[in-house]
Write a structure and sequence with these properties.
Helices cover about 40% and strands about 15% of the residues. It has 6 helices and 3 strands; from the N terminus they run ααβααβαβα. The chain has a 3-stranded antiparallel β-sheet. α1 (about 5-10) runs antiparallel to α4. The longest helix is centred in the middle third of the chain and has 22 residues, at about 75-95. The radius of gyration is 19 Å and the shape is globular. The relative contact order is 0.20.
Length: about 150
């Protein structure tokens, strides 16, 4: 299977040694960021299956215990990681022509799903992603004005 998005995911890493030698203009970078945000999320209905995204609360608790300096930030770090996983799975599916939507039925479905699939008690359901064939393209999307959504500070 060839999936250019997955190949690009391998390139996406946390880079800490950053410089100013970028080939794109500030306007081009702003346009990329605005379009990525503008296009997230979109909705599809029904589906073939559902991806369930969980956080293992025991892992978060261990991190808080082992790294007390950052204990107040680990919940947020976990949410960041969850968001990255959501977008990566969603985009990888889209790259293969599979539609998906990101849903948050919590806490309505939590107990039912946990019982049905024998989910450990220390796992917290964060999101559900129904997926399947695209039976009809997504409708037109309305956007709030860019000057209300984005602020570019130079």
């Amino acid at each position: 299977m060839s999936n250019s998005f997955l190949e690009n995911l391998k390139k996406r890493r946390s880079i800490y040694a950053l410089g100013k030698n970028v080939k794109l203009s500030e306007d081009e970078i702003t346009e990329i960021i605005e379009e990525a945000i503008r296009q997230s999320p979109s909705a599809f209905k029904a589906g073939l299956g559902t991806v369930l995204f969980y956080t293992d609360e025991d892992v978060i608790a261990d991190l808080k215990k082992n790294f007390p300096l950052y204990k107040d930030a680990f919940d947020m770090f976990g949410e960041h990681g969850m968001g990255i996983a959501n977008v990566d799975v969603w985009t990888a599916l889209a790259n293969e022509g599979i539609g998906a939507s990101l849903q948050h039925y919590n806490p309505i479905a939590d107990k039912f799903i946990a019982e049905k699939f024998n989910i450990p008690a220390n796992w917290t359901l964060k999101a559900q992603m129904p997926f399947g064939s695209i039976e009809q393209p997504a409708g037109d999307k309305e956007f709030m004005p860019d000057d209300e959504r984005f602020r570019v500070i130079k």
